[in-house]
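Technical annex B. To support the medicinal chemistry partners, we prepared a structural model of the target in complex with nicotinamide-adenine-dinucleotide, based solely on the information shown next.
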Amino acid sequence: MEVFTAAEQGGHERILFAQDGDSGLKAIIAVHSTVLGPALGGTRFYPYACEEDALADALRLSRAMTRKNAAAGLDFGGGKAVIMGDPHTLKSERLLRAYGRAIESLGGAYVTAEDVGTTIADMEMIARETGYVTGAAHDSGGSGDPSPVTARGLMAAMRGAARSLWGSPDLSGRHVAIQGVGKVGGAFARLLAEVGACLTIADVNEEAVKGLASELGATIASPDRVHATECDVFAPCALGGALNPETVPELRCAAVLGSANNQLASDDLAADLAARDILYVPDFIVNAGGVINLAEEVGREYRLERANRRVDGIEATVIELLARARETGVTPLDEAIARADRRIREVGGLHARVARSPHTGSGAR
Ligand code: NAD
């Protein structure tokens, strides 16, 4: 991959490659946009097959964060970082602190958080070297694990979609098929069960799926066929790319709504879903609860009730987004991208004119 060409094509502002030979750190921090504020996005620690894959992931995910943060109305731009390697064997204090210094060297252009392969404890270790970090534990004044709040945001999005599809937010008796019952998918399944939804669940982790199915009375599907379940809503809550040219024709649901980032293998699949009369509620609108929660700890004391209130606002966002998409005859994805672009255009210019604290109140504690 030609790095500058890729950055130019994606519109990325800067990319930092950081290494520390002693700990084995190889990290890429992609700052996609700071137009709305510091680039906020998590650190993914993953055993990428090669450097090119790691870079491609950082570029793709950071761009998606710009959309997500803008569409959620946050004063943050988009960024994402990846650390190459197996977190189970490579993670060490030295590596995390060396990574923290790399974040610090960006002077606040990038603010990190946890993601696949990183934990709250890792964020606290990174915070020993930099203030530009969010997601510490509640008892350290942070916003804690974002997963339960993300699941709460999924429920808000479900109510919004249900109103649009069926004229009522009531989810009792609705059948939801969940692909991936990890931190978010598992919490989402429990919340759905509480309101009387009927569940089909699938996960490559057989133990986890069996335990949850017996707890909630859910049906188990195979991970590679769950998308084809006849249901009201298919919820991709595992990894990206669940909606691709093979799976989209096999869907038998009224709507797709889940937490996974980058659910569409390519954006043009949104039109294929619309042509099949399947409502796709864009992932970066639906799963913004996690980042809304993180933003609540930056520059002020974190309050769960305030975070929950803002996350519940995803219901109104979904209703408005779907109504506008219908009125203008575009897909919900196009409308969601337009919503993010509008905000960047309308509010983004402020930064050039208004002096900001170098630390936006900062993730520093
Ligand atoms: P997780 O790792 O806890 O859960 C993912 C689950 O998916 C695991 O149980 C895993 O075994 C399962 N899985 C993996 N491949 C699968 C497959 N092919 N079929 C079925 N199951 C499979 O991660 P999480 O924190 O729950 O996040 C899930 C998704 O939501 C990710 O895409 C993440 O980026 C996104 N997301 C998470 C948050 C958050 O707050 N944690 C916020 C926004 C977006």
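Notes passed to the chemistry partners:
Residues 116, 146-147, 150, 179-185, 202-205, 208, 223, 237-239, 259-261, 287, 290 surround nicotinamide-adenine-dinucleotide (CB under 6 Å).
Confidence is low (pLDDT under 50) at residues 353-365.
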